[in-house]
Structures are given as structure tokens and as C-alpha cells.
Amino acid sequence: MSNEFVKMTKEGSVLVIRLASPENRNSLTMDLRRQLGEAVEAAESDASVRAVYLTGEGPTFCSGGDFRMLQTACDPWPVHRRFRNLSRWLMPLITLDKPVVVGVRGHAVGGGMGLALTGDIVIAGEGAKFMSGFFRLGTVPDIGMMYHLPRLIGMARAKNFLFSGATMSPQEALELGLVAKVVADDEVDAVGLAEAMRLAQGPAEVMGLAKTLMARSFETSLQDMFAFEGFGQALAMSNPEFREGLAAAIEKRRPDFVGVAAAAPHNAEPATAPTPAIKLA
What we know:
Blueprint: E1 6-11, E2 14-19, H1 30-45, E3 51-56, H2 67-72, H3 76-84, H4 86-94, E4 100-104, E5 107-109, H5 111-116, E6 121-125, E7 129-131, H6 134-137, H7 145-153, H8 155-164, E8 167-168, H9 170-176, E9 181-183, H10 188-200, H11 204-214, H12 222-236, H13 240-251, H14 257-263
Parallel strand pairs: 2-3, 3-4, 4-6, 5-7, 6-9
Antiparallel strand pairs: 1-2, 7-8
Helix pairs in contact: 1-4, 7-8, 11-12, 13-14
């Protein structure tokens, strides 16, 4: 069995991250979590990466928790350590200051659904199924489900979905706004990657800044959000991407955000580039 549970490839300015453990339905084993964290760190540290496309190999996107691990690591301290380590892989993914597109084929169950919801844009295949599954095991929803789901579809709908143990079809997810598009299963990667590449051509750093600010909107007063917007705009307008976007609008041409970002001094290659934790395929 391969020890590579997460694969990375580069498609232009997009880093493609694939959960690569289809033999156990891409469940969230400790090895997969660790390698996913390393992949997100690579996306964060590489200035040439302007967007991420996250998906899974095989017929299942992610089946959630690893049952074998849960059988032997359910005492308080192992659970505490496991959730403390979320800061090493899940939080960096949620807070990544670059656009993240997620492509879901097959089942996204429990923590797998939570992982799918970390995407800024989710593309679902026609055969996708979004399932809670937590209460079936007698556990509370985790992997960000209780944070993201009420914000995305409202508290009442979130409670109804989680408490009923329902399965959500991709069409229902589309109607609720959880996913942006529903496409044929064999088109998920093409559509998801195209969306990530489109975002990568935009002002990725400024979109990352907006993403950071919007994450605070539900806990922040209107006055404070105005202040955040002001600080964010001051920073955005000091970015070469703004100057290129404004010039392109005035000159009636397409902006070259990628080019100006690559030429920016703060994006220059370091004298000794760090070795990525996972080799690109």
C-alpha cells in the first residue's frame, strides 16, 4: 500500500490537491491529515500558487473519520490531542488567503462533508451525496460543520439536516447555496479546475484579503466591519494588483494580475527555496 495519501500537482497557477486513499474511501486518517496539512502549507508558502483545487481520488470524496482509529483513540486525551492538531491542517485550509475550489464526487460523509465546506466554491457531481452521520455514531458534528453549515444555510436548516441524519442530494445542496454548480461526475475535475484557474487569473491576494475579512462578519458589529473594510481597502490599494486592475479598466483591456504579482518584489524567489513536504507528481 502506498504511503502517499495526498497528491499534489501544479496546473499553471493552481495547486491541485487530491486525497489519494481510495481503498479506505479517503477517510481522515492521521497520515492523510498530516499530509493534507503539508499540502496546504505548500500552497501558502508558494507565491506562484494563486488558487487551490481540492478533490478526492476514487468514487468517494471523503468518508469522514477513520473508524479503526476511533476504536482505539476515543479516550479523552487522544481526542484532545487530535482536535488540538486541527490547527496544523484544518485551520490553515479554512484560513488560506487564496481561493479554494472543492470538487466533490461520490459521498462526502461526516467530517468529509465538513472538509468539502471549507471550499470557497464547491463543484458537485450529479452522483454526489452530502451526509452528516455524526449522530449515528453518537458524536457531535466536527471538522468545522457546526461553524460553516449554519452560516451557509441558516441555523434552522442546519439543525434539521444534522438532527435528522438526512442525505442531501447535489440538487438540494445547489438550491441551498452549499454548492455553486452541479455537473456530470466525469466533468467535476474539468469544471473545478477551470474555476480554480479562473480565480487564479484574478486578484488572488486581494480576494484572499476579502476572504479573511468576510470570515469575521457574523461576529462583528457593522461599525467594526466598516473599519475592517477601510483597513482592508488601504492594504488592497497598495497592492500592484489594484494598480494593474485600475489601469486595465481605464485602458479598456484585460488585466494581467498574474504577471504583475509575479513581478512584485515581495513575490521574488528566496535565495534558498524551502523543500516542499510532498513532492509534486
